[in-house]
Design brief:
The complex is a heterodimer of chains A (217) and B (246). Chain A has nine helices and no strands. With 217 residues, chain A is mainly α. Chain A has a domain at 68-87 and 98-213. In chain A, helix 7 (140-155) packs parallel to helix 9 (193-212) and helix 8 (159-184) runs antiparallel to helix 9. The radius of gyration of chain A is 26 Å and the shape is elongated. The model of chain A is unreliable at 24-31 and 90-97 (pLDDT under 50). Chain B starts with a helix and ends with a helix. Chain B is built from nine helices and no strands. With 246 residues, chain B is mainly alpha-helical. Helix content of chain B is 77%, strand content 0%. Chain B has a domain at 51-211. Chain B is globular and about 75 Å long. The chains are: A mainly alpha (217), B mainly alpha (246). The interface between A and B is medium-sized, with 32 and 34 residues. Chain B: Involved in the maintenance of the Golgi structure. May play a role in hematopoiesis. Chain B: Keywords: Cell membrane, Cytoplasm, Differentiation, Glycoprotein, Golgi apparatus, Membrane, Transmembrane, Transmembrane helix. Chain B: One of its GO terms (cellular component) is plasma membrane. Chain B: It comes from Sterrhoptilus dennistouni.
Chain lengths: 217, 246
């Protein structure tokens, strides 16, 4: 190194100092502060994250926020709400008709797990919980459809109400499927999108079927 | 201490991923291939003198089984079956998966006895694609309730997919007795399953069930008793249908 031949350290430049790295004010302090902050702040932060994801589902755009910070609170709330609303229906007037709470719960989670496994086996780049998160959040339009159906059924139980319910459920089913494909299809190689879309279509079809055939006692 | 816990967790996670990776090659398909195989499953092959190639793929069969479950649910609902919805999903999933896995294993066992050259995955795949005919038939006949139409579909569509499976099996077996045993059982089970699926959830069954069931039946007992009642009902309705069409 020719340029360094004439470099010399003069005696008065200090060559000593602190070796300890200053504690980064980002992570350790954040940990401590999230433990110490009031419960309301934690809950509000989580609620805001969940709310942001709901907005993402309503206007499906290709955004990575939904995928990056996955959480399962939203799907849990939606699943429980849907299962509760599907209670009290009956195929006939015998003891307790209608899908049981546990049944709906198991169907939704089992179906979501199967779809996730399928997309991973087909070579997807999305992780297990991210996929569960997306599928759970996209049940939201169907939950809204269930609410509308219940309200319509309060009015009357005739053919007109069936047609209205059919249209609403059909529209929400299409919305759910499109929303989830907008997020999940990107993680697949391009020529296999149909292979991943089809089970999602079946899954939301079964849920829509459960909603459409719900008749209150 | 923490390192050991971490290592144990990592090895458990790895074994889980290893299990998934075992199945990965069976899902390596393109949509074009799936569509081609679906159509092929209805075309019986002519050459039974040398072994036919069977694709050992699980995506198509798995999707077909789930589609069959969905169609069954739709059929149960349109026929207003009394089986309460709490057990509808369970019944549908149990029936379809039970048929696919159970009959595949049984046929694989028979194939092992009869010295047929077929592996378990190929058997699963073959039977799974054979369900495509069932799906089409049930989709049409659950919506259009003519008995004669069902019988035509049963013979033609069911027959075609059975013939294909039988032909493939025959091409892989040597010896007349073995071929007869293997193909006879497969044909019988496949066609009878379609018959069962149609009649088990048929409107006519409802009346018979109604008169036989008491008013205070606990739920799970209902499902268990439906099956023997259904066989009577099947015989009754078959006799009636044949009498009507003749």
């Amino acid at each position: 190194f020719p340029g360094l031949a004439d470099v010399s350290i003069s005696q008065d430049i200090p060559v000593e100092g602190e070796i300890t790295v200053p504690v980064g004010s980002s992570s350790p302090d954040e940990d401590y502060s999230t433990l110490d902050e009031p419960v309301k702040d934690t809950i509000m932060r989580d609620l805001k994250a969940v709310g942001k994801k709901f907005v993402h589902v309503m206007y499906p755009r290709k955004s990575s926020a939904l995928l990056r910070d996955w959480d399962l609170w939203g799907p849990l709330v939606l699943c429980v709400a849907l299962a509760l609303m599907l209670q009290g229906g009956s195929a006939d007037s015998k003891d307790d008709g209608g899908p049981q709470f546990a049944e709906v719960f198991v169907i939704i989670w089992f179906g979501a797990i199967v779809i996730t496994l399928n997309s991973k086996l087909l070579g997807g780049t999305i992780s297990f919980f991210q996929s569960l998160c997306v599928l759970g959040y996209c049940v939201m339009p169907l939950t809204v459809a269930m609410l509308v159906c219940r309200l319509v059924l309060l009015a009357d139980v005739g053919t007109i109400s069936f047609i209205i319910r059919l249209i609403v459920v059909g529209a929400m089913f299409a919305w759910s499927t499109l929303a989830s494909t907008a997020f999940l299809a990107d993680s697949q190689p391009p020529n296999r999108k149909v292979l991943v879309m089809y089970p999602i279509f079946l899954f939301y079809f079964v849920i829509s079927w459960m909603i459409l055939t719900f008749t209150p006692q | 201490q923490m390192w050991q816990v971490g290592k144990r967790q990592a090895s458990r996670a790895f074994s889980l991923y290893a299990n998934i990776d075992i199945l990965r090659p069976y899902f390596d398909v393109e949509p074009v291939q799936v569509r081609a195989r679906l159509l092929e499953s209805m075309i019986p092959v002519k050459m039974i003198n040398f072994p036919q190639k069977i694709a050992g793929e699980l995506y198509g069969p798995l999707m077909l089984v789930f589609t069959l479950v969905a169609i069954l649910l739709h059929g149960m609902k349109t026929s207003d079956t009394i089986i309460r919805e709490g057990t509808l999903m369970g019944t549908a999933i149990g029936t379809c998966f039970g048929y696919w896995l159970g009959v595949s294993s049984f046929m694989y066992f028979l194939a092992y006895l009869c010295n047929a050259q077929i592996t378990m995955v190929q058997m699963l795949s073959l039977l799974g694609y054979g369900l495509f005919g069932h799906c089409i038939t049930l989709l049409v006949t659950y919506n259009i309730h003519f008995h004669s139409l069902f019988y035509i579909f049963w013979l033609v569509v069911g027959g075609l997919s059975t013939l294909r499976m039988v032909a493939v099996l025959v091409s892989r077996t040597v010896g007349h007795t073995q071929r007869l045993i293997l193909c006879g059982t497969l044909a019988a089970l496949h066609m009878l399953f379609l018959l069962y699926l149609h009649f088990a959830y048929h409107k006519v069954v409802e009346g018979i069930l109604d008169t036989l069931e008491g008013p205070n039946m606990p739920p799970f007992q209902r499902v268990a008793r439906d099956i023997p009642v259904v066989s009577n009902a099947v015989l009754n309705t078959t006799a009636k249908a044949i009498a009507l069409t003749l």
